[in-house]
Design a protein that fits this description.
It is built from 1 helix and 9 strands, in the order αβββββββββ. With about 130 residues, it is an alpha+beta fold. It starts with a helix and ends in a 6-residue tail after the last strand.
Length: about 130
């Protein structure tokens, strides 16, 4: 091997090493797991009257997630069969005698999905509410 080829090989190895170091310390490589807990303001324009807007309060105790569906200060329902896995949330509610199955996915600070019940499917979107500082 000539000295010129040895130098090129050395520089190539150095460049690959620097690239690998850069990738290992980039923000994408160290992204933390998404946390869905908090208050989400939802909108479902096609829902029956009284259910077109409200909040979802997502909590976590240990490894178990919980969801409270809030229409207003007087009307709320606690979800059952709550499952959160890989940025997908599923749960069900009992509202006015209907079982409503809700499922959706999180992307950044937006939760989109479908509420399914005996009358059909309704699309919704929820946005995480900003924390108010006291």
């Amino acid at each position: 091997m000539t000295i010129m080829k040895t130098k090129e090989l050395f520089y190539g190895v150095i460049l690959i090493g620097l690239f690998l170091l850069n990738v290992s310390f980039s923000p994408e490589a160290s992204t933390k797991k998404f946390d869905p807990t908090g208050t989400w303001k939802y909108s479902a324009p096609e829902a029956p009257e009284g259910y077109t807007a409200g909040e979802l309060i997502i909590g976590k105790e240990g490894k178990a997630y919980s969801v409270v569906f809030v229409l207003d200060q007087y009307h709320q329902a606690t979800a059952s069969e709550v499952v959160y896995k890989k940025e997908r949330l599923e749960f069900q509610l009992y509202l006015e005698g209907y079982v409503v199955k809700i499922s959706g996915t999180f992307e950044d600070e937006i939760f989109t999905g479908t509420a399914s019940y005996a009358e059909g499917d309704i699309d919704f979107t929820a946005v995480r509410k900003k924390e108010e500082k006291e």
